[in-house]
Specification:
The chain folds into two domains: 102 residues, Enolase-like, domain 1; 265 residues, TIM Barrel, CATH 3.20.20. The longest helix is centred in the first third of the chain and has 22 residues. It has twelve helices and 20 strands. The model has no long low-confidence stretch (mean pLDDT 95). The strands form five sheets. The protein has an eight-stranded parallel barrel with strand order 4-5-10-11-12-13-14-15, surrounded by four helices. A three-stranded antiparallel beta sheet has the order 1-2-3. It is an alpha/beta fold and 415 residues long. The structure holds D-mannonic acid. D-mannonic acid binds next to loops. One of its GO terms (biological process) is amino acid catabolic process. GO terms for molecular function: magnesium ion binding; mannonate dehydratase activity. This is Mannonate dehydratase. Its EC number is 4.2.1.8.
């Protein structure tokens, strides 16, 4: 079974997605997600100009060999664009293999280890009343674990806090929240501002109020979004200990992995890191020194199912678990792949699940379900996602960028 063609599909049903579709000479198709938020066209070009010509004629069954061919063969290894492109090929080939086998993909990854994936949703509010409403709304939707993001006094807008401008009102007058969507349409990123001292003072008061209102049982998560130095991160981790977080995410940018030691020395708040990592080498030291508790990479950015499975297997040696990135910029193809992997691996922890919009579902028609707080894979052969070309063609790419961040004195900071 040879690869006959591969198409790079760029579409924007409200936000941009890059999808690879591989077709074999036997007429089987497979899908892979290659979306890199705010840099979509670079990965589309990497695929169309440098990878698609290499794929034609390869044996579609040789997934590992193709992975190695693209990883070693580029000479320029790793990085988000390369690894997202490899991920798309890898995922599409797994989709094809599972369709040919007539099995849902997770069956090829070892079969079912659990009934469904515990997932967390994004509750947010600039002030406490709005935040509490959002938490209740998520509970009503079935979420059993909830990420809490909130405004910081003195800052006009803060990462993770949904703007009411994104809420949609249906024909029958019901207003639904739409989760925080940071990429904004336009030729340039918007600028936000940041004040670490105000954040550090404010955040424990928010978690105290949330625990008082919702009790001790509800698993709560929080994302510091790369903004702290190691000693600031240690302080935040320590100040949140009384509120028993499921995890504290991305406390530092973690480019210098050794700095995580400082955070770890000071706090028992569990740490999740890695949504911007791409390979096992980004995690190696963090695992071996047991500096983190959860792996955040999605299938889409970590070299596909093959790449992420390798990371999870190594993590398991150190009792570190999965906590896969699942914002709306990971397409339903990337999410479906994560669900198949998550249902099979022994060291599953939690799955992030920000629901995609209706327009995104019309484009991808995913077969996975969300019931009682659990994501369940499609039982049809393959990934269980179908790309609708007509819908895709109706939504042309529109430039959109993640914001940038400045400190109050105007210096650039991490967003
Ligand atoms: O934890 C998360 O989901 C976030 O950090 C993302 O919303 C992230 O900001 C976006 O994926 C960026 O594209």
């Amino acid at each position: 079974m040879k690869i006959e063609s591969a198409e790079v599909l760029v579409s924007s049903p409200g936000r941009n997605f890059v999808t690879l579709r591989i077709t074999t000479d036997t007429g089987v198709t497979g899908l892979g997600d290659a979306t890199v938020n705010g840099r979509e066209l670079s990965v589309a070009s990497y695929l169309a100009d440098h990878i698609v010509p290499l794929l034609i004629g390869l044996d579609a069954h040789r997934i590992e060999d193709t992975w190695q061919y693209l990883y070693r063969g580029a000479y320029w290894r790793r990085g988000p664009i390369t690894m997202a492109a490899i991920a798309a090929v890898d995922t599409a080939l797994w989709d094809i293999k599972a369709k040919v086998a007539g099995l849902p993909l997770y069956q090829l990854l070892g079969g079912r280890s659990r009934e469904g994936l515990l997932c967390y949703g994004h509750a947010s509010g600039a002030e406490l009343p709005e935040l509490f409403d959002s938490i209740r709304h998520h509970q009503e939707e079935g979420y059993r674990a909830i990420r809490v993001q909130t405004g910081v006094p003195g800052l006009p807008s803060v990462y993770g806090v949904a703007s009411s401008a994104n809420a949609a009102t249906t024909a029958d007058g019901v207003t639904s929240r739409y989760d925080h969507e940071p990429a904004r349409p336009g030729a340039k990123p918007v600028e936000e501002s940041w004040d670490t001292r105000a954040y550090i003072r404010h955040i424990p008061t928010v978690f105290e109020a949330v625990r008082n209102e919702f009790g001790p049982e509800l698993p709560l998560l929080h994302d510091a979004h790369h903004r702290l130095t190691p000693i600031e991160a240690a302080k935040v981790g320590k100040s949140l200990e009384p509120y028993d977080l499921f995890w504290l995410e991305d406390v530092t940018p973690a480019e210098n992995q050794a700095v995580l030691r400082r955070v770890r020395e000071h706090t028992t708040t569990p740490l999740a890191i890695g949504e911007v990592f791409n390979t096992i080498f980004d995690y190696k030291d963090l695992f071996e020194e047991q500096l983190i508790d959860y792996v955040r990479s999605p299938v889409t950015h970590a070299g596909g199912i093959t790449g992420l499975r390798r990371i999870f297997d190594y993590a398991a040696v150190y009792q570190i678990r999965s906590g896969v990135h699942g914002p709306t910029d990971v397409s339903p193809v990337g999410l479906a792949a994560a669900i198949h992997l998550g249902i099979a691996i022994p060291n599953f922890g939690i799955q992030e699940y920000m629901k995609h919009s209706e327009a995104t579902h019309e484009l991808f028609r995913p077969g996975y379900t969300f019931e009682d707080g659990l994501l369940k894979p499609s039982e049809t052969p393959g990934l269980g996602v179908d790309y609708d070309d007509e819908v895709g063609a109706a939504h042309a790419y529109a430039p959109a960028y993640l914001p940038v961040n400045r400190l109050l004195d105007g210096s650039m900071h991490n967003w």
